[in-house]
Design a protein that fits this description.
The protein is built from 5 helices and 17 strands. It is mainly β and 265 residues long. It folds into 2 domains: 105 residues, Rossmann fold; 132 residues, Tumour Suppressor Smad4, CATH 2.60.200.30. A hairpin with a 2-residue loop joins strand 8 and strand 9.
């Protein structure tokens, strides 16, 4: 017998809700368990997307549902799960009804390579990385003004607040509150200028990276999980015309997670 769609009342969504579940290959057992408890009405008819996996899968889900206007509630079945809620089969209805929202805006990358121009979006970061044993040489421009004439490094990245606890944090960049109107510009293993540790930029900033000696010192550009090889110029800016909503359990929202991350060893 077909199950009736879950009906929930929420301050944010005061109407009966319909769910769609999506999962990584490793989370198929959990997916089957959730679908045994709740009707999956399909992606098109759903009010909320429930993603089962890790942080990488959350990023994939954000990209998959761009422009659909559907909030995403993730449950961690991966390794870190910073962007996810804890996985429990029970009480999903109540958790969703009380969930708190976090709106995120992606970066838009425009990368020029020997094969042409590629545009992509990144909810975590856009990173430039050396492709060979030789360090990269990159000129850093902000709002059309040169800020570093020649950065010798393994790479450099621009991070959103949501992505500031990911690769950016590993590269010793700053952690940003989720609602901060800021971007983090963070070098990766900078050799010259040796003491430069990065910068905080207003979210309206337009960043351009010009790869110097690109034939001798090739560089790739990565927007979340999309990589462009052998780039010569990369432009990065936040795209405020796009907003995605993630849902978090009450008292465990993304603001609290980012704040807590700054008080751990």
């Amino acid at each position: 017998m077909a199950r009736k769609p879950v009906r929930m009342q929420s301050p944010c969504y005061p109407y009966p809700m319909k769910l769609h579940f999506t999962a990584t290959p490793e989370a198929q057992e959990a997916l089957a368990a959730m679908r045994a408890r709740h009707t999956d009405v399909g992606a098109g008819a759903a009010d909320i997307i429930v993603a089962l996996g890790g942080d990488g899968f959350m990023l994939q889900t954000l990209h998959a549902f761009l422009g659909k206007g559907k909030p995403i509630y993730g449950m961690n079945l991966g390794s870190v799960g910073f962007l996810m809620n804890e996985y429990h089969e029970e009480a999903l209805e109540g958790r969703l009804a009380a969930a708190e929202q976090a709106k995120v805006h992606p970066l838009r990358m425009r990368a020029k390579s020997r094969d042409g121009v590629v545009e992509a979006l990144a909810f975590n970061e856009v990173s430039l990385l050396r492709e060979t044993r030789q360090a990269a040489k990159i000129r850093v421009m902000v709002d059309e003004r040169p800020r570093i004439a020649e950065l010798i490094c393994d790479g450099i990245l621009v991070s959103t607040p949501a992505g500031s606890t990911a690769y950016n944090l590993s590269a010793h960049g700053p952690i940003l509150p989720i609602d901060a109107a800021l971007l983090a510009l963070t070098p990766i293993s900078a050799f010259r200028p040796r003491r430069w540790r990065g910068a905080l930029l207003p979210h309206r900033a337009r960043v351009r990276f010009e790869v110097l000696e690109s034939a001798k010192r090739p560089v790739s550009a990565v927007a979340d999980d999309l990589e462009v090889r052998d780039v010569s110029v990369v432009d990065v800016a936040e795209d405020r015309s796009i907003a995605m909503t993630m849902l978090y359990d009450a008292g465990h929202n993304l603001d609290e997670r980012i704040l807590s991350e700054q008080f751990v060893d």
